Amino acid sequence: MRLDGYSIEARLASGGCGAIYRASHVETGRAVAIKVLHAQRDEHVARFRREAAVLVRLRNPHTISAFEFGETADGTLYIVMELLCGESLRGPLSWRRMLNVAKQVCESLAEAHALGVIHRDLKPTNIHVDRDDFVKVLDFGVAKIMQGSDLDGDTLTRAGQMVGTFDYMAPEQIVGSQCTPQTDLFALGLVIYEMIASQRAFARSHSPVAMVQTMMTTSPPPLSAKTDAPIEIDHVLEKLLARDPGDRFASATAVATALDGVMRLKRS
Questions:
Q1: 118, 160, 177, 226: which is deepest, by most CB within 10 A?
Q2: Hey, is 113 helix, strand or coil?
Q3: Which stretch of 55-59, 71-75, 110-114, 118-122 has the lowest confidence by average pLDDT?
């Protein structure tokens, strides 16, 4: 691939719709990652443009930064982003370390939600951690723009359509109902549980219906019963994983405050 102003050095990842390349700016030498879209279906193009519009507005240090969005001479869309060092989140993690990671994720989500953006695909592979445990939230490709946001609010999802990654969806997301910031908070609860417990909060199911039934009829085993996590974390997770979105935390900021409270309590 050729892109004016950049020297393409290596392909970092690829998928059915596009690829990500390591590159450097010809004049400044700054190392960057360039995400390109190969698919040309209208839906893919619209989602890629939506992702670019979201990323250039997000400025929280715990959200991946986008520097440029454009189109090559042959019509290929691209986003120039910061090049990250580190790896995707993986467990098991100590409960203290995971709460530190989760608080940083909350900072990213708080800014996105304030702008009317719901991530809808929060999962370990979309949470990047460097060797100093500094977190970056990635991939707003299926983000939902809430009504009232000054970003492009045109819907890209049909009524009843399930969007996201099945294993990290809230019940309302699985059945295609309205997503809210609390949908992202449910996903965060699933990630926290999995990283500490080294297993999913809910048993794997092979269909959306079975998964929703599991979520609606069972609760995950308390972390404090199977790890050294304090019972206060179970209280936070119970609220994050509430079946009714209205019973979850009011905001990502409220989650961060609760997590900080657990860490302060256990330091005293």
A1: 118
A2: helix
A3: 71-75
Cα–Cα distance, 147 to 145 (Å, whole number): 7
Specify burial of residue 75 (Cβ count, 10 A radius: 0-12, 13-18, 19+). exposed
Reported as a single tens digit per residue, the pLDDT across 169-178 is: 999 999 999 9
**Topology of the domain covering 87-267:** Transferase(Phosphotransferase); domain 1 (1.10.510)
Respond yes or no: is residue 121 known to be catalytic: yes
Would you state the pLDDT for residue 227?
96
Catalytic residue among 4, 42, 74, 121: 121
